[in-house]
From TrEMBL, chain A:
The lineage of its organism: Bacteria, Bacillati, Actinomycetota, Actinomycetes, Streptosporangiales. Part of the phosphoribosylformylglycinamidine synthase complex involved in the purines biosynthetic pathway. Catalyzes the ATP-dependent conversion of formylglycinamide ribonucleotide (FGAR) and glutamine to yield formylglycinamidine ribonucleotide (FGAM) and glutamate. The FGAM synthase complex is composed of three subunits. PurQ produces an ammonia molecule by converting glutamine to glutamate. PurL transfers the ammonia molecule to FGAR to form FGAM in an ATP-dependent manner. PANTHER family: PHOSPHORIBOSYLFORMYLGLYCINAMIDINE SYNTHASE SUBUNIT PURQ. Pathway: Purine metabolism; IMP biosynthesis via de novo pathway; 5-amino-1-(5-phospho-D-ribosyl)imidazole from N(2)-formyl-N(1)-(5-phospho-D-ribosyl)glycinamide: step 1/2. This is Phosphoribosylformylglycinamidine synthase subunit PurQ. The active site is at C88, H197, E199. Pfam families: GATase_5. Its EC number is 6.3.5.3, 3.5.1.2. It catalyses: N(2)-formyl-N(1)-(5-phospho-beta-D-ribosyl)glycinamide + L-glutamine + ATP + H2O = 2-formamido-N(1)-(5-O-phospho-beta-D-ribosyl)acetamidine + L-glutamate + ADP + phosphate + H(+); L-glutamine + H2O = L-glutamate + NH4(+).
From TrEMBL, chain B:
Monomer. Part of the FGAM synthase complex composed of 1 PurL, 1 PurQ and 2 PurS subunits. Transmembrane segments: none annotated. Residues 210-366, 589-721 form the PurM-like C-terminal domain. Belongs to the FGAMS family. ATP binds at Y58, K100, N513, G550. Mg(2+) 2 binds at D126, D278. The active site is at H55, H104. This is Phosphoribosylformylglycinamidine synthase subunit PurL. Part of the phosphoribosylformylglycinamidine synthase complex involved in the purines biosynthetic pathway. Catalyzes the ATP-dependent conversion of formylglycinamide ribonucleotide (FGAR) and glutamine to yield formylglycinamidine ribonucleotide (FGAM) and glutamate. The FGAM synthase complex is composed of three subunits. PurQ produces an ammonia molecule by converting glutamine to glutamate. PurL transfers the ammonia molecule to FGAR to form FGAM in an ATP-dependent manner. It is found in: Cytoplasm. GO terms for molecular function: phosphoribosylformylglycinamidine synthase activity. It catalyses: N(2)-formyl-N(1)-(5-phospho-beta-D-ribosyl)glycinamide + L-glutamine + ATP + H2O = 2-formamido-N(1)-(5-O-phospho-beta-D-ribosyl)acetamidine + L-glutamate + ADP + phosphate + H(+). Its EC number is 6.3.5.3.
């Protein structure tokens, strides 16, 4: 069969799109570039919304991107079950587009932070984390200025009660996120957003130490093959 | 307001012109009149005043900088040398790297955030204009004393500016320096380096050939930013009376710069650019005169066509504006539709503002009247050249005579090590570098706190073959060494950068430099400058690494007090198989630790003398460049043969700090034995030394290799355990080293 096709979205100001495409290719998938101004998902099997500063993020992060023509397609496809992963700016966009609950605000330190962060995969029950074991601790880099996850108490309680916290910071919270939340999923589990960057932890030679991020990419490929 | 046209200038020859206010001397103004055969118009005066400023014309430094060319070593790798936007070197397999370092010192003092941010933006556009994709940045930063009040204003702003601009551009920040010294309190140094990658046959140059070709201005619109910034800010000191000029700092828009990068690369790939120039200091003046001077020789420009952010701007202001994120391209008329379509795709405004001619004149119009009509070369290339007088500073002999011999030696070396390790200059810079994205683009092999930054060479460019190569970069400088002896100080800066590249396994190839000094009108400062340039040029010749470009920053002084002379040197190296890179520090247990190179009792300008005694005197360590070259060959050969598991250069703080940093790198301890005087062995700053860790069975091969290159090789001990142990001298748990090292900057800056 042909390789699973994972769309990688580029907005003006997207930065980690090449990185995401490399990671998809590394696990045997076919990255498909998707352009913000097109209304065409090119028949992809899944979508990766990479990090960056879309449209400069001069307003609230992700606030303009959610109105991009391509986003309308992504929102309706995601609601119909298309697997979508957003990292960093991609996570911010998914929250702004109401595909995920909550919001990402300025880091508690008020500084941009780039560091190798210990995180725990809280659930393997998503399209993007099924290659991990629930409770598994891994190291992924974080790099953001606005990654403090917030939501109202009811939403937080619901996320916790329904197992929708996907990734949690351990050994230190880099940005002041409530409940140390690093990533969440939607009810169906096809849409996941997280601040850390699995695409920067896929090769021994470059990026963060280790290859702990590969699981996100093998997960989606496995999911697509099994489907 | 009436326009000062050429016609008007001809009939009002005696109208007084404000050349002095624009920083021009009487004799310089007289030369302009002589060139034009009449008085200049206001717009022409604007062009000459910025192009002939110290910042743009190098009028005080030119006579010395020539040595970088006349003494240049032969190098097969050099593709483009000095005089272009940036130098280009051949790194093999059809690939080339272009890199340059540039200062943004004065703006960063006035407005730290925007000053530093636009410093990054400017150097990135230099790299883009060579036809390359920018792939990484580095910053060499110097601030006043860490505990001085103004440092708490300047440092966080500078770091935030670099962080915001660089991170938004998607360029990994892979290294640099952060140094504190009270001499920089009123004159922080912000030197930004950018490196780019391109195919060897795709180099672009700043030239406007072919009459009839169109001149396109693209990127941000032009506003009243930094008008006169280049000449006023970079050529004047911060005396109180200049306060009125301070808002002249430019404001950066990294989002527009990111769009410009992608847009330019697509323009290059479509082959629709004949010549290109970034707009930096002196804006449209600089771009038009330089492009025209290097091309067919003439250009017609209609200034009314320049898109303005502020419609009230006068032509003189448009010419001098330093609005950021702008580029100028020369495009064949038939390629204009394709050019415009690519700009539109990236939402980058682009406007044809003129045309290349063969008249030999740069002619500009405003409201239909000719306001500029000059031979462009006279502004771009024929600026004034000064042979400024210089002599050794009156206190130099006394400074050199005041050696550290009189300083009391410590009895408790453990306490000395910890105090040095926690001192601001040697403490962890994580507080700074943790604000920079070092991972974006997924090619970062080594980044801070490694000795050098290293990148894998991997770009999706059509027709490019995959390669195993990587490039390494380091920037270094030491103002205290240079104060004691500017000739040796400049050589030591080069030696350290060369060594930092070599310890990672990369072969040093080429040099860029940023020469930060006080006022060239002070003969004592000029002596420091002349000596530093002479030293650097001599050292480049011996080490076989040519200078490819750089930047001079004068007037880094407040009142009559100049900064320590601070030549900052960047070295670029290449590693044939990037998988063979050598990580910094001790990477595992049970490795043999060896010290390569000779240790002498050299404490002049050392961190020990600085931290423990606040002393600066005597002479810096000897710059033994033959020894440096031998060490470099050993390190590069050993890395290629896979002999080295880890390495670290010895520099500030000597062996003690190198051992501590090597242990902290992966949390691996070490047990070592010293044979000579422990204080000298641990804290001397003799150059041409490195620490390496090898598998026990590889030690004999390493020793043999060292012998072949006359490099002393001393087995010191083995790695392992949770402490750094120097037998009979000191023992410190690695965790305690880490805590001491990490605590200082957060305590100072929050």
């Amino acid at each position: 069969m042909s390789a699973a096709r994972v769309g990688v979205v580029t907005f003006p100001g997207t930065l980690d799109d090449q990185d995401a495409a490399k990671a998809v290719r590394l696990v045997g998938g076919e990255p498909v570039p998707l352009w913000h101004a097109d209304r065409d998902l090119k028949g992809v099997d899944a979508v990766f919304l990479p990090g960056g500063f879309s449209y400069g993020d001069y307003l609230r992060c992700g606030a303009i991107s959610r109105f991009a023509p391509l986003m309308e397609e992504i929102v309706s496809a995601a609601r119909a079950g298309l697997p979508v992963l957003g990292t960093c700016n991609g996570f911010q966009i998914l929250c702004e587009a109401h595909l995920l609950p909550g919001a990402l605000t300025r880091n508690a330190s008020l500084h941009y932070v780039c560091r190798d962060q210990r995180v725990r995969i809280e659930t393997a029950d998503t399209a993007w984390t099924n290659a991990y074991a629930a409770g598994q601790e891994i190291t992924l880099p974080v790099k953001h200025g606005e990654g403090r996850y917030v939501a109202d108490p009811e939403t937080l309680a619901e996320l916790e009660a329904t197992g929708r916290v996907v990734v949690r910071y351990v050994g230190g919270n880099p940005n002041g996120s409530l409940n140390d939340i690093a990533g969440v999923r939607n009810e169906a589990g096809n849409v996941v957003g997280l601040m850390p960057h699995p695409e920067h932890a896929v090769e021994e030679l470059v990026g963060a130490p280790g290859t702990d991020g590969l699981g996100f990419f093998t997960s989606i490929l496995k999911k697509l093959v099994d489907a | 307001m009436s326009t000062d046209s050429v016609k008007r200038a001809e009939v009002t020859p005696d109208e007084p012109m404000p050349f002095a206010e624009l920083g021009m001397k009487q004799d310089e103004y007289d030369r302009v009149r002589e060139i034009l055969g009449r008085r200049p118009t206001g717009s022409e005066l604007a062009i000459y005043s910025v192009m002939w400023s110290e910042h743009c014309s190098y009028k005080s430094s030119k006579v010395h900088l020539k040595q970088f060319a006349t003494k240049a070593p032969h190098s097969d790798a050099l593709l483009v040398g000095m005089g272009e936007n940036a130098g280009v070197v051949d790194i093999g397999d059809g690939w080339a790297a272009t890199f340059k370092i540039e200062s943004h010192n004065h703006p960063s003092y006035v407005e730290p955030h925007q000053g530093a941010a636009t410093g990054v933006g400017g150097i990135v556009r230099d790299i883009m204009s060579m036809g390359a994709r920018p792939i990484a940045v580095m910053d060499s930063l110097r601030f006043g004393g860490a505990d001085q009040a103004d440092t708490r204003r300047v440092l966080p702003g500078v770091v935030e500016g670099i962080s915001h601009y660089g991170n938004c551009l998607g360029l990994p920040n892979i290294g640099g320096e952060v140094v504190f010294d009270p001499c920089y309190i009123g004159n922080p140094l912000v030197n930004a380096l950018c490196v780019g990658l391109l195919r060897k046959d795709q180099i672009k140059l700043a030239t406007a050939p072919g009459p009839g070709n169109k001149v396109v201005l693209f990127g941000a619109s032009t506003g009243p930013d930094g008008i006169g910034g280049a000449s006023v800010l970079a050529s004047a000191t911060f005396e109180d009376e200049s306060a009125a000029k301070r808002p002249a700092v430019q404001v950066g828009d990294p989002f527009m710069e990111k769009l410009l990068i992608e847009c330019c690369l697509e323009l290059y790939a479509a082959d629709v650019v004949v010549g290109i120039q970034d707009l930096g200091a002196a804006g449209v003046s600089c771009a038009t005169t330089e492009l025209a001077a290097k091309g067919t020789g003439g250009m017609d420009v209609d200034l009314n066509l320049v898109p303005l952010r502020d419609p009230s701007l006068r032509p003189e202001e448009i010419l001098m504006s330093e609005s950021q994120e702008r580029m100028m391209a020369v495009v064949r008329p038939s390629d204009i539709p394709a050019f415009m379509a690519i700009c539109e795709k990236w939402d980058v405004p682009a406007t044809v503002i003129g045309e290349v001619t063969d008249t030999g004149r740069l002619v500009m119009t405003w409201n239909g009247e000719v306001i500029v009509d000059i031979p462009p070369g006279t502004a771009a290339d024929d600026g004034p050249v000064y042979e400024r007088p210089y002599h050794e500073p009156s206190g130099q002999a006394a400074l050199n005579a005041d050696t550290p011999d009189r300083l009391e030696r410590p009895s408790d070396l453990r306490a000395t090590l910890l105090r040095l390790l926690g001192s601001p200059n040697l403490a962890s810079k994580e507080w700074v570098t943790g604000q920079y994205d070092r991972y974006v683009r997924s090619n970062t092999v080594l980044a801070q706190p490694a000795d050098a930054g290293m990148l894998r060479v991997a770009e999706d460019i059509e027709g490019a073959e995959p390669t195993t190569r990587g490039i390494a970069l380091s920037t270094d400088g030491n103002g205290r060494y240079a104060k004691l002896d500017p000739y040796a100080g400049a050589q030591l800066a080069l030696a350290e950068a060369y060594r930092n590249v070599a310890v990672t396994g990369a072969r040093p190839l080429a040099v860029t430099n940023c020469l930060n000094f006080g006022s060239p009108e002070d003969p004592e400062v000029m002596w420091q400058f002349a000596e530093a340039v002479r030293g650097l040029a001599d050292a480049c010749r011996i080490l076989g690494v040519p200078v490819t470009g750089g930047n001079v920053s004068f007037y880094n002084q407040t009142g009559s007090t100049a900064i320590n002379p601070t030549p900052v040197v960047g070295v670029l190296g290449v590693i044939n198989d990037v998988a063979r890179r050598v990580p910094t520090g001790f990477t595992g247990e049970g490795l043999r630790v060896a010290l390569l190179g000779e240790t002498r009792a050299e404490f002049g300008g050392s961190e020990w003398a600085h931290v423990e005694h606040g002393h600066l005197g005597g002479l810096p360590p000897e710059a033994d460049l033959e020894a440096e070259q031998g060490l470099g060959r050993v390190l590069v050969t050993a890395a290629a043969r896979g002999l080295l598991e880890g390495s670290h250069d010895l520099s500030d703080g000597g062996l003690a700090i190198a051992l501590a940093e090597s242990c902290m790198a992966r949390g691996v301890g070490a047990r070592v034995t010293l044979t000579g005087d422990p204080f000298t062995e641990l804290f001397s700053e003799s150059a041409a030394r490195a620490l390496v860790a090898v598998r026990p069975e590889a030690f004999d091969d390493l020793a043999k290799l060292c012998a072949e290159h006359d490099v002393p090789c001393y087995g010191l001990g083995v790695t392992g355990g949770t402490s750094l142990v120097v037998e009979g001298v000191l023992e410190v748990p690695v965790e305690e080293l880490r805590e001491t090292h990490a605590a200082t900057l957060p305590a100072l800056f929050g």
